[in-house]
Amino acid sequence: MGTEERLAGGFGFPLGCVAVVAAVIAAKLASAHPGYAVVAVALAVGAVAVITTPLAAGGVTAVGWSVLSGFGYGRAGTLVFTAATGWVAVILAGAAGFGLVAGAGWRAVRRDRPVIAEAVVPVPRRAVESGHRRVASL
């Protein structure tokens, strides 16, 4: 699988991790309800999945779930395995899948179509007619 018009996994994964942490911090500062953090992280995961490789999108999804499970639903980074965090995993996986499909569709639309060049044959030029004839001198 090529990385045409995508961020390579080496750059997409760290970018996604920063986006996930920033989304969680912003959502936690705005509200104490973890549902807002899930929406913010799902948007970040989906946006990263559009512009990066599937491997990096999967890694960002795992990091997003870990951050939400550890700091959104749990305390002090302790991972919590409950039905709520299971739904968070499903939501983040769906956001990543949607982002990957949307990114592939966008790249397919933007892909340059091959141009078929037609052979252009120029029209023969007419000889220039001068008003006088030149005589070659020896």
From TrEMBL:
Domain of life: Bacteria
The UniProt record lists the keyword Transmembrane: yes
Entry's transmembrane regions: 6-26, 38-67, 79-103
Keywords: Membrane, Transmembrane, Transmembrane helix
Name this polypeptide is given: Uncharacterized protein
Organism of this sequence: Amycolatopsis rubida
